[in-house]
Amino acid sequence: MTVFNFSAGPAVLPVPVLLKAQSELLNYKGSGQSVLELSHRSTLFENILQETESLLRELLQIPDNYRVLFLQGGATLQFSMLPLNLATAHQRVDFIDTGSWSQKAIQDAGAFVQTNVIASSEADHYRSIPTGPIRSDADYLHITWNNTLEGTTFTNVPQVDVPLVADFSSSILSEPIDVSQFDVIYAGAQKNLGSAGMTLVIIKDDLLQRTPDRLGSYLRYDIHAAHHSLYNTPPTYSIYLTKLVLEWIKEQGFDTVVQRNRRQAASLYAYLDQSAMFSNSVALPDRSRMNIPFSTGQTDLDQQFLQFVERHQLVNLKGHRSVGGMRASLYNAMPTAGVDALITVLQRFEQGER
User: Are strands 146-147 and 152-153 parallel, antiparallel or unpaired?
Assistant: First the structure.
């Protein structure tokens, strides 16, 4: 059965990537071994690691003075690793609070250092990104670039005199970004990069000098950088799948992927904006192209719709339990046919089909 998967993560993967992984599962490059079985010290896996980093550097145009790390623990582990490694001068971190994942990052950092929210959109229920001049004198400023639950995204990079750290988990490689405007970019892989299990960290070289000696080895960015992400056994298969995803993006053309993302999101927003039944409440300038929440405004009717779409092979459209309603995640691997099918089902339901 073919379905269109709108999950916020783990998310849909490109079909060619899955087929390639399937074809190599039992015998990778004539080795007689699966990638799942390869030693992380083997030449075969070290080549996978090097090719993955090379593709990332090419697609994101990562400057030479940044290190690329492939870690475990999800983006959530970074909520603790960041203050432990970087908040070593003032013992203080500033945050722009834009929703659930910002709040979790604030909570975890608060276990180690002082936290300060210098701007927040809580007052309007996180339907927008805070505007106005931003000033910080903390060890770094943390932002969540794309807000998976709330469906908002930054469109302008905050200009501050301290290092800028950004969680790009749900929008990495969906749009061009100027890496040089950030000091740390991190992202869980399970949305746009590959499968759950691997977390990407792109960190400016000079920040590695901040890591204090008292930290345990796995929590130290400088150790992972010195060992090229091979200090311990890395998430080998997740890294391999990321390599395949990056190859797919390069083959498609990064600009082609970006333009498709924009068209697909615009199509869905256009329908929601004219609908008399469904609506999206996010401020127009701050709408995410990756995660689009919507609702009828009635819990029972939302539930009827969710049952209706599943009968039409559209899955994982239920909104997060803390928000309710529906959410369509349109990551890079979502085909246009999936968005078209969703719009058709929205129309049919609104016209009275149940």
Answer: antiparallel
One of 101, 145, 183, 204 is an active-site residue; which one? 101
Distance CA 91, CA 99 (A): 23
Cβ neighbours for 218, distance < 8 A, ≥ 6 positions apart = 231, 232
Residue of 94, 108, 183, 191 marked catalytic:
191
| C-beta separation of 235 from 49 below 8 A | no
Residue type, 120: S
Average pLDDT over residues 253-279: 98
Coil, helix or strand for 135?
coil
Provide the whole-model pTM.
0.96
> How many Å is the Cα radius of gyration of the chain?
21
Helices marked H in 174-292: 221-226, 236-252, 254-274
Amino acid at 354: R
Q: Is 191 a catalytic residue?
A: yes
Judged by DSSP in three states, 120 sits in strand
Q: Which residues contact 341 (CB under 8 A, 6 or more apart)?
A: 4, 312, 313, 314
Tell me whether residue 248 is one of the annotated catalytic residues: no
Catalytic site residue from 94, 97, 167, 302: 167
Q: Which two tokens stand for residue 127?
A: 């339907």
Alpha-carbon distance of 142 to 279, in angstroms, equals 30
Strand positions, DSSP E, 130-193: 140-144, 146-147, 152-153, 164-167, 184-188
3-state class of 248 per DSSP?
A: helix
In this structure, are residues 271 and 347 in contact, taking their beta carbons and an 8 Å threshold?
yes
Question: Residue 92 has which token pair?
Answer: 């203080």
Q: How far is CA 14 from CA 11, 83, 103, 110, in A?
A: 10, 35, 31, 38
Tell me if 249 sits within 8 A of 325, measured CB to CB.
Answer: no
For the stretch 315-351, pLDDT in tens is 999 998 778 899 999 999 999 999 999 999 999 999 9
For tokens 């599943």, name the residue: 310
Residues 6+ apart with CB under 8 A from 19: none
DSSP state of 319: P
